[in-house]
Amino acid sequence: MRSRVLAACLALTSWALPHGAVLAQDFPNKPIRIVVGQGAGGGMDTLARLVGQRLSTNLGQPVLVENKVGAGGIIATDFVAKAPPDGYSLLMGPIGNMVFTPVMTPKLRYSPTKDFTPVSLVATFPLVLVVSAKQNIQTVPELVAFMKANPAKSNYGGSGPAFQFASELFRLKTGTPGEFIQYKSMSETITGLIAGDLLMSMVDTGPATPAIAAGQLRALAVTSPTRLAALPQVPTMAELGLPEVGFRFWTGLFAPAGTPEPVVKKLEAEINRILKLPEVASQMATMQVTPTGSTSAELGKLVVQDLARWAAVAEVAKIKTPE
Fold it and tell me: What is the three-class DSSP state of 279?
């Protein structure tokens, strides 16, 4: 009799709880997947595996990284947007797919604000403005002067919309001419810079640092609010009188819209706990990125703010993809 009463009480309690709370109590009871729009070994893939391994330990369920490569990350992003909103499908969503691609593509298959529930930021990273060491350009003012005097030689390049937007922002704020050259990868961009095929580029600090150290590239400025430990001699854009060109790019975890809030909060708490681990910070430091947690609301606010900021840049610079 006692056991039947206890069972009835438990059932009544379960019935009285909101559906999301019931899901959170049982979550997770099967493997979770983190979908990445890059191939294995890329920066987003490495971050997803770094976080996923520890998330699996903390939650007691496998966390699998699934690479869905194609269309510049659109395939992976759209896949998660249409996945069941139960917390078992997450997206490692970089600013490129959550901000720049939506700004550039009017008829995109997903909406970063309507089709996703933010979970937490994962990492932030600045860019570094570089020129070929073959160029007799030592500073940003010298670069600006050269571009204004030589518009036909003032090209800049990158491997995706994030780098195009960053370069266009620099060009707009300095009043310089130029043409953007699209490259397939960061390594090809750096090779083009070293060879002198490109005048300048805004690039990730990680891939660029070896070429800077080898004397093949010259770093002129970083977009971070303070100087970088890896490049202490390189001034910030703010120091050079260009605070508007100061920014950090980011990546975060997103769930499909409609994912129950208790499930999101459980994932949010675990991700933030993981990002505070010294060993995680150490591993991210080797990638030149900073572990940066947040609440779901904070990440959602950041997405909205960046959509507005970079849409304004796209409008002035006339950046868009062909329909």
Answer: helix
